[in-house]
């Protein structure tokens, strides 16, 4: 991945503080407000939200259908949203099946459903991932330890505009009778991006 | 502006490499794909990044076969592209490397 | 340089298990600062992306993700006349 740090960490921290000070002097930034907004964001947005939505879709076929049809509306049913950021973005949920597997990327920068799931993993933002997953998704998945059945078709979704994408992984075998919380605990951030089975 | 393309329409991505900011990935330029669905209307980043007036324009999810992008791969890649950068393609308009 | 889809030669995808949302406070602050500035209309998201894309290719590849963000924010603050280039770089020199 790019960037073995052009500047050292302490240098960068000092430079950020310097720019913040310049902005505070101009009334464009309030340090305590910035901290508050950060805390609120991190409290609200995390992969657990995605896991919960997936578990509900596994248990409730009507919800699953609504999630695939209009994810933003389905999120509202469970008191979740893609808002709370700069602008509410359209969420598109794509479903994995035995025949079809989905993987998400933003080749141009790092677009990701951050309002719902929190910040993306560093590898998702890397030039290595962004360049290679559109050309050789199976090889990239193998690097994640995920060897997909050769008969399964892969679709790679490049989030190059205003929609943000999330994968609905396949429900693992042998999970009959588990409740929503137990099912949600099985869902990983990597599964929601499509580089893991779940 | 009205939406021009129904799902299933074959479209070709603009081949030119603009000097300004755009959200057409280089690997899709000049390639032919199929409209999956419309994403509604959004201001064109090419204009918005330059402070130009930008009415909301239609954006589409377009599906490409990997072999039409990279000459290898059995997968598909979907990309979200503004209508401005898409041209409809008919059977006679198929590019030489298409199957 | 940002338009890397399909480019070859970047090597293995490096993974870091259980990484935190931000690796340093300064990264979180750059994230929040950018949001605050866009929210106030100092610049828009497309201008922000464009500022990153205008980085020289070598600089782009050598910079970590949030270093790119800091560069873009600083560039736009100067271009929009909020601060001067001298004011921004005064900070950079004082840490040497």
Can you describe this structure?
The complex is a heterotrimer of chains A (198), B (99) and C (96). With 198 residues, chain A is an alpha/beta fold. Helix content of chain A is 47%, strand content 12%. In chain A, the strands form two sheets. A two-stranded parallel ribbon of chain A has the order 1-4. Chain A has a two-stranded parallel sheet with strand order 2-3. By secondary structure, chain B is mainly beta. Chain B has a single domain (10-93), classed as SH3 type barrels (Roll), CATH 2.30.30. In chain B, strands 4-3-2-1-5 form a five-stranded antiparallel beta sheet. Chain B is globular and about 40 Å long. Chain C is mainly alpha-helical. In chain C, helix 2 (45-53) crosses helix 4. The longest helix of chain C is centred in the middle third of the chain and has 15 residues, at 25-39. The radius of gyration of chain C is 15 Å and the shape is globular. The two termini of chain C are 29 Å apart. The model of chain C has no long low-confidence stretch (mean pLDDT 94). Classes of the chains: A alpha/beta (198), B mainly beta (99), C mainly alpha (96).
Considering the chains and any ligands shown, give keywords for the structure.
heterotrimer; A: 198 residues; alpha/beta; Nitrile Hydratase, Chain A; 2 domains; two-stranded parallel ribbon; 11 helices; 12% strand; C: 96 residues; mainly alpha; Cyclin A, domain 1; 5 helices; globular
**Radius of gyration of CA atoms of chain A, rounded to a whole number:** 19 Å
- Determine the CATH superfamily of the largest domain in chain A: Nitrile hydratase alpha /Thiocyanate hydrolase gamma
Query: What name is given to the CATH topology of chain C?
Result: Cyclin A, domain 1
Would you identify the regions of chain C where 5 or more consecutive residues have pLDDT less than 50?
none
In the predicted model, the low-confidence regions of chain A spanning at least 5 consecutive residues are 1-5
From the helix content, strand content and strand pairing of chain C, which structural class follows? mainly alpha
Strand content of chain C: under 5%
CATH-defined architecture of the largest domain in chain A: Alpha-Beta Complex
């Amino acid at each position: 991945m790019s960037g073995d740090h052009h500047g050292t960490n302490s240098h960068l921290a000092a430079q950020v503080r310097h720019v913040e000070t310049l902005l505070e002097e101009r009334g464009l930034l309030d340090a305590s407000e910035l901290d508050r907004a950060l805390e609120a964001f991190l409290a609200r947005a995390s992969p657990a939200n995605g896991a919960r939505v997936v578990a509900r879709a596994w248990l409730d076929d009507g919800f699953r259908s609504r999630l695939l049809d209009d994810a933003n509306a389905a999120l509202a049913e469970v008191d979740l949203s893609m808002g709370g950021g700069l602008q509410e973005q359209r969420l598109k949920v794509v479903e994995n099946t035995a025949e079809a597997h989905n993987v998400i990327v933003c080749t141009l920068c790092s677009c990701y459903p951050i309002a719902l799931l929190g910040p993306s993993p560093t590898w998702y933002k890397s030039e290595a991932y962004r360049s290679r997953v559109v050309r050789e998704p199976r090889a990239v998945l193998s690097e994640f330890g995920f060897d997909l059945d050769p008969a399964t078709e892969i679709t790679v979704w490049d989030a190059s505009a205003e929609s943000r994408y999330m994968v609905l992984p396949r429900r693992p075998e042998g999970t009959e009778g588990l409740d929503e919380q137990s099912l949600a605990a099985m869902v990983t951030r990597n599964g929601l991006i499509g580089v893991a089975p779940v | 502006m009205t939406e021009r393309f129904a799902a299933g329409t074959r479209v070709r991505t603009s081949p030119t490499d603009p000097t300004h900011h755009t959200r057409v990935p280089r690997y899709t330029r000049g390639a032919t794909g199929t409209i999956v669905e419309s994403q509604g209307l959004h201001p064109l980043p090419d204009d918005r990044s330059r402070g130009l007036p930008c009415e909301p324009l239609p954006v589409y999810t377009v599906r490409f076969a990997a072999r039409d992008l990279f000459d290898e791969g059995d997968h598909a890649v979907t990309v979200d592209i503004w209508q401005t950068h898409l041209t409809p393609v008919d059977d006679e308009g198929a590019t030489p490397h298409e199957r | 340089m940002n338009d890397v889809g399909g480019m070859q030669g970047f090597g293995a995808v490096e993974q870091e298990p259980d990484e935190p949302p931000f690796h340093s406070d300064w990264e979180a602050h750059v994230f929040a600062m950018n949001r605050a500035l866009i929210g106030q209309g100092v610049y828009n998201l497309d201008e922000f992306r464009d500022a990153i894309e205008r980085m020289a290719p070598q600089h782009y590849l050598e910079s970590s993700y949030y270093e790119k963000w800091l560069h873009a924010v600083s560039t736009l603050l100067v271009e929009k006349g909020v601060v001067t280039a001298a004011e921004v770089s005064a900070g950079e020199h004082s840490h040497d």
